[in-house]
Amino acid sequence: MNEGEKSLIMKINVKVIPGAKVEQIQKALPLSSSGLTRGSMEHLKVWVKGKPVEGEANRAVVALLAKHFGVPKSSVIIVKGLTSRNKIIEINI
User: Fold this and answer.
1) Are 60 and 52 in contact, with CB atoms under 8 Å apart?
2) Per the count of CB atoms within 10 A, which of 38, 77, 82, 91 is most buried?
3) Hey, which residues does 89 pair with through a beta bridge?
4) Distance CA 75, CA 12 (A)
């Protein structure tokens, strides 16, 4: 990034499915208990081969999202949900 440029931080909700045979990302439509969508944050469903053991699945999620958005892995940060399948992730674009 050049001096004077500002980075854009994108926050996304991610539902992780660990131990998948194929890694993939799919857009998801969040529903509240009333059936209405909530928030303006993007929601993704992410399947990764990594198991939910010792951070393996988290590392796989970071790597897959970094590849998907074309950013380095260091630009993808799990800000909430390290031990949960539901995560909030920031991506510095």
Assistant:
1) no
2) 91
3) 12, 78
4) 13
